[in-house]
Amino acid sequence: MPDTVTIIDNRTGKQMECPVLTGVMGPPVIDIKHLYKELGMFTYDPGYGATASCKSAITYLDGEQGVLMHRGYPIEQLAEQSTFLEVCYLLIHGELPNKREMDEWEAGIKTHTMTHEHLSRFYTGYRYDAHPMSIMGGVVNAIASYYHNTTDIQDRDQRLITAKRVIGKMPNIASKCYRYAVGLPFVYPDNSKSYVENFMNMTFSRPCEKYTPSPVAVRALDLLFILHADHEQNASTSTVRLAGSAETNPFACIAAGIATLWGKAHGGANEAVIRMLEEIGHPRNIQKYVNRAKDKDDSFRLMGFGHRVYKNYDPRATIIRKACHELLVEMNLNQPMFEIAMELERIALEDEYFISRKLYPNVDFYSGLIYQALNIPAEMFTVMFALARSAGWLAQWMELMEDDEFRIGRPRQLYTGKQIRNYVPLNKRP
Ligand code: ACO
């Protein structure tokens, strides 16, 4: 007898057996696909806190234990020993590459670092002070137009080329978002450089000076990219999957993910953390902000705290916290903001409000501090997040396209509006 859960409608006595699916790890999942057909009911789960929207073999996370793994490899090991491009390969192919596969993968990504020259003109249509996330979303969507009729999304090889195109072009696109805002000329990619060095060169070099990024900064950025590469079915990834389920252009799917990531409840939190720390200004002001975060009449929340899934330390935050300490020592930087952050973390973690709600610092609490130590402007933080997360979005999109149960995503609702009523002409309305 297979595992089932019986759902009984106490109003009618009708009942149905729902299969219980077990994954490799994680809680079992009740299959309610036929609920509406059998019992004429939907399920209600605002925010999808208890809903598995798909089967996935890419990323596993256990929020109670603070565990995160990609394709079975713990994030701690990937952070310590891998590189961002290798993690991209792992997410997309499911296995770590051998030397030949890795060389081919890197070479493949490098053939896609350029963007069509006409695309550069898109940037100049934006206001000089446009948020780079707005530019990035627009430009990535615009790339769809260059490949729309030539990409068959039903063809696995073409999906793979799309993945290489996006990963290859993202540093180029991100760098231009920055350079347009600060009035610097665009820089072409230089494929003799590593992925991160190339990104840094395109972003921060000046035509009049020789530019060599610090190896410490290159490693720190590579680490941040690894830690942001994928994170299961979060809001932006679910957006990418939902857009992909309509069989839309993959660049448009990624643009949809960028739009969702921008929000401050999601990826935009890294920028919001720095703005908040700037506003706090001094450790003596921290308690005031903690009190505001606890006040139900105040909409203020401690940015970089809390997570839908992690009810324990975000394992990425633990890694970044350590990297942040090391970076500041290695670069001999005195960051007053880091002091405020550490003190805020201490006070919040000892506070009953945060303890009882299991609100811990998340990845965004520290990532902004590293970006800031590297002199990257706050508006670019979420852009860098999007650059890295594109790998996960692509892996998830490719998995969706290969899913036997592929259907357009179409949630239902609990209608709370008016009953049917008759239209009243304008001249007869009171
Ligand atoms: N500051 C103060 N209180 C908080 C915070 C916070 N940062 N986060 C949650 N709470 C409180 C809520 O008010 C709620 O309290 P209540 O039970 O008394 O009503 C309780 O903790 C549970 O919070 P929910 O909003 O139900 O948690 P949810 O899972 O819906 O939200 C989220 C998670 C959006 C991340 C939330 O914690 C938040 O807004 N954090 C700040 C923004 C942030 O850092 N986002 C980045 C997330 S990581 C990422 O996307 C990469």
Key attributes of the depicted protein:
50% helix, 18 helices, three-stranded antiparallel β-sheet, single chain, binds acetyl coenzyme *A, mainly alpha, 6% strand, globular, 430 residues
Which secondary structure elements does this structure contain, and how are they paired or packed?
Layout lengths: L3 E5 L6 E7 L7 E2 L4 H5 L19 E4 L4 E4 L2 E2 H7 L2 H10 L5 H12 L9 H4 L8 H16 L8 H27 L12 H10 L10 H14 L6 H11 L4 H12 L7 H12 L5 H9 L20 H16 L5 H14 L2 H5 L6 H11 L7 H21 L29
Antiparallel strand pairs: 1-2, 2-3, 4-5, 5-6
The structure holds acetyl coenzyme *A.
Describe the structure in your own words.
The protein is mainly α. Helix content is 50%, strand content 6%. It has 18 helices and six strands. Strands 1-2-3 form a three-stranded antiparallel beta sheet. A three-stranded antiparallel beta sheet has the order 4-5-6. Strand 1 and strand 2 form a beta hairpin. Helix 9 runs antiparallel to helix 17 and helix 11 packs across helix 18. The longest helix is centred in the middle third of the chain and has 27 residues. It is globular. The N and C termini lie far apart (64 Å). The model has no long low-confidence stretch (mean pLDDT 94). The structure holds acetyl coenzyme *A. The site of acetyl coenzyme *A (ACO) has 19 residues, from helix 17.
